[in-house]
Amino acid sequence: MKQKHAAAAIDLGATKTTVLVGSSDTEGHTNVEGFGMVESTGFQNGGIGDIQKVRAGIQEATRLAEESSGTRILSAIVGIAGEHLRSQNERGIITIADRNYPITEEDRERVLEMAGQINISTSQQIIHMLPRKFWIEGTEHVADPVGMYGTRLDAETHIIVGAASSIENLRLCVEGAGVKVDGFLPESVAAAKSALTDEERMQGVALIDIGASTSSICIYEEGAVSHSASLALAGEHLTRDLTQVLRCPWESAEQLKKTYGVAVSSMAPLEETVEIQAFGNPPEKTIQTRHVAEILQARCEEILQEIEVELRRTKTLERIAAGLVLTGGTSSLEGLCQLASQKLRLPARIGYPTRFENIPEEFSSPPFATSVGLLEYALHESNLSIQNTTKQHSSNIAWGGVGRRLRDFGKGFLPQ
User: Fold this and answer.
1) 3-state secondary structure of 248
2) pTM for the whole thing?
3) What is the assigned CATH class of domain 86-163?
4) CA angle at residue 175 from 231 to 62, to 5 degrees?
5) pLDDT tens, 236-286?
6) Three-state SS letters, 301-363
7) What's the CATH code, domain 4-83+165-194+353-410?
8) Most buried pick, 103, 151, 172, 309, via CB within 10 A?
């Protein structure tokens, strides 16, 4: 009988809370065993506004995931996003004591630990660290130095920090729902893991995860993450614009966006009209779908302009030959991919999660790239605990030291 390892992931979005349970076996097969999904409540302006409501949503989604998978979820990897996230690249150097012996895993852990030491304020907290590159004797970088010879070993890591209060509030919600947090993973990094190809990572690519409240960026160069950031402009701003300009309820604007919305106004029929609910008397009004498209295009162009500013600020715009990959719920807006390619003068495509063999149909679309990426990371790059109720799954012990954590974190993110 093949031994299976089970893991869980929690994706807390502004519109939906998703819990996924998956498994992998010794032959490398990965499967989604079950899931739970509920409408999110308690989020406000991209953050937690009501802990009790967020906790209740996590509890219900977890219960549904446990029922559908036949497992009891004890711990999980949790996605995190928000404008409070910041990133930087840091370098560490160590000396190898005896050049007659090859570099060991312990040496690799030591240099990663050195590269992970940064000074941050007490109001911030390190969320995640990813190995980027290694150098031996200052020569060309290598993917993995273990087994090679040299007296000096350098390493560079990509470090993501966030507001300590936001992190702890998120932890409080998840653990208050009865699930231990084994680690946080930035949502853009998770989406990149499920939606990008190895070739795109090597040639340079920007993953843009446009959710409801934030747009997250994850840039790969030469096979490793070089920059990540979050912007406070996303799908909810499109809906808010419609409510303000058309003077209609939120639900009416949201449905209008999903049914008739396009990101390029010329794509909307010139004379087409639609009746919507509105404030005042009478409670309905007739509007042109071309007018809806013009409102949406203006905000989409602003989002894309902010993304371009970030890419230019980090001097990566000219280095990402593979262009843009769009994920998240807003990426499904018709015409957005074409508009992004036109405005940023880069290749662009929609990113679909493709890593699992039996992924449910509802999770094979761009809005779920983050959820699937979190689960893939949970299965292959971290140590988690899940208790069986009906299936033979293994569980792992808690994390070791910082260097070992870095080594495990980075397995799926290093250049190949």
Assistant:
1) coil
2) 0.87
3) alpha beta
4) 85
5) 999 999 999 999 999 999 999 999 999 999 999 988 999 999 999 889 999
6) HHHHHHHHHHHHHCCCHHHCCCCEEEECHHHHCECHHHHHHHHHCCCEEECCCCCCCCCCHHH
7) 3.30.420.40
8) 103
